[in-house]
Amino acid sequence: xxxxxxxxxxxxxAAGKGTRMKSKLPKVLHLLAGRALLQHVVDTAAQLSxxxxxxxxxxxxxxxxxxxAYSTGATALFDINFVRQEPQLGTGHAVQQAVPALRDDxxxxxxxxxxxxxxxxxxRQLIAACGGEKLALLPIDFADPTGYGRIVRRGDVVQxxxxxxxxxxxxxxxxxxxxxxxxxxxxxLKAWLARLDNQNAQGEYxxxxxxxxxxxxxxxVVAHKISDALQVxxxxxxxxxxxxxxxxxARTAVQLMEQGVRLxxxxxxxxxxxxxxxxxxxxxxxxxxxxxxxxxxxxRIGANCVIVNATIGAGTVIHPFTHIxxxxxxxxxxxxxxxxALVGPFARLRPGARLGAEVHIGNFVEVKNSxxxxxxxxxHLAYLGDATVGERVNYGAGSITANYxxxxxxxxxxxxxxxxxxxxxxxxPVTLGAGGTVGGGSTIxxxxxxxxxxxxxxKQVSIADWKRPAK
Length: 471
Ligand code: UD1
Ligand code: CA
Prior knowledge:
Number of helices: 8
CATH class of the largest domain: Alpha Beta
Structural class: alpha/beta
Largest sheet: 22 strands, parallel
Bound molecules: uridine-diphosphate-N-acetylglucosamine, calcium ion
């Protein structure tokens, strides 16, 4: 394929209202696979090595601009400029607003902020078809073309795009529609935009009218037709959003299975971010992965787990109904689980939980901002917050770290080989010396010496022949 050397500027139309979403949130900020619709489009633009992205905002402009400004990743690769379109007088009017931001030497790719699943490779082919001198359109055949602009050809040659509302009965029978995506030389685009009028059924400035100007100017109009409808499907309603979500997830599931991941049911997996899997990973039904999740070789994930921003070591088993909610990848809040660990069922790993190899975390155990060294175990009903736990520590059922005094958080240090009985309260800051034992039911407020048995509870008394009160 020819490599295009012209700089690419991407214009994303995102000023429309999205009435049919029936939401206060601007349409392009609704999430698909955990990312705003508009973010998908911006991330695709990033894959084109675009020189800049111009986002045309209108409805909800402040929110849309703020959301993108805070988004991470691909956005950092190029200039992202916002242009306001107020009021919204049509797609041609929208792109007119971008003209001051566009240099003459580039190819402009026009995208919509509510069409999230266009693939970069498709756009590369469209850019190649434009080649810096032609008007390249991305059409598709739809069995039901209602509502779309029709591609009107004479013989094979594209003559115009006629909007549905302006189309004759004969034109409405055309099944080849315009997807809303084009690539066009910037200088040509600017000249054509200046010639638009709104003498049409909707009283709007139609971007699609530039096709007839191209024809009139003798500029070739090429159609790069695709057949994958998913790539051009827009989101106008919650129903369409859910359909695209399913389609996206299905695609993700297939990609994972092609890498060797075993999914109990590809229809019951949700990846809202980036899921990296080693060899022989298996995932049971109804699991949700968010942010950056890495599963090492042979990891098994039970049914109904939610795993956010975590790295899980090789051979570890996450039993059903476990909730892992790590903070930003690479930050101190990320969650790490070492190799050969057992977690769950019904476990909760919160930000900053770092479990070493072969750690066991059982049912109804919550771990937050704590490090557990190799082989440490907390198997039932326990809380570890702001704790440093040594190797092979055994942490009894019902025990907690009292890490918060109402104003400050304090650390609990449990050295290697300590055994904590059941129902203990470890009042931080406190250090439990290596190899020590804490009797069940103890409230520990002072450091304990290594190797000692520490008991901090009322001594048991028994009163002989005790008579219960009687009526
Ligand atoms: C447009 C095309 C139509 C094509 C269809 C594909 C025109 C005139 N028609 O239809 O040929 O088949 O897309 O979906 O271009 N927007 C703005 N400002 C505006 C109007 C729209 O930013 O003033 C944005 C919308 O938010 C949306 C995109 O442009 O992201 C497309 O607008 P929409 O109203 O969906 O396009 P149609 O006119 O229906
Ligand atoms: Ca539309």
